[in-house]
Amino acid sequence: MxxxxxxxxxxxxxxxxxxxxxxxxxxxxxxIDTATAYQNETAVGRAIQQSGVARxxxxxxxxxxxxxxxYERAKKGIDASLQRLGLDYLDLYLLHxxxxxxxxxxxxxxxxxxxxxxxxxxxxxxxxxxxxxxxxTMTVQPAVxxxxxxxxxxxxxxxxxxxADHVRVEAWAPFAEGQHGIFTDxxxxxxxxxxxxxxxxxxxRWLLQRGITVIPKSVHQERMAENLAVFDFELTAAxxxxxAGLDRGESQFFDHRDPATIEQxxxxxxxxxxxxxx
Length: 278
Description:
Layout: E1 6-7, H1 14-27, E2 31-33, H2 41-49, E3 59-64, H3 71-85, E4 92-95, H4 102-114, E5 121-124, H5 128-137, E6 144-148, H6 156-164, E7 168-172, H7 186-195, H8 199-209, E8 213-214, H9 221-228, H10 237-244, H11 259-277
Helix pairs in contact: 1-2, 1-9, 2-3, 3-4, 7-8
């Protein structure tokens, strides 16, 4: 699994998504991250098929949405993702959220794993206790946990717990979607100037040096290239410590453990799933 990949969250326009993935592959990206909920798997698949790059040289990730979190629905959801992408297998498939019938969906993913449809299975947005419950209950262990990690929300305890269990942490929203002036922050800017790099490159390098895989998104090819150019410098221990001091200790988007937030964002999918199952 590459350390640095390309994400397509919030790129719903299929033509734009296909163009972006095509350019990303041309630029050198080999990890492509999509999801059922992004509604752009077909565009990602077209870009992959037309790229001219061997399938074995690409690492493709998708995710199952909670509306498919039952055993039977997950089996169909996995096949639907493969069909939309036009692929025979996925390198990694994730449960997108820690809600609903997680165990039933995981059983279906285990079966797909044993059948060769999925090379590795994992989760997204799981806290350490939720991950541990899955590890102790199921047979195939999660390979990856994709969570929010950025300078404003560093999650050191969650990262350490995952890594201790040999679960690779993959960071979504590494730039916090530009919130709180992250690209002009004076602390990050000073470090960037010292290395002749951009603030974005420093953030990506900081994540990589923490052993975290990262999937930045951009629809601009020059930014794609910039984000890849982070393997020719190294942050010092002092710089890593300085960046650790930027942690605000709270999500820049929403709290996955807040009942009101869960109801607001995921309630409709969970209620619809309950009706369909009943």
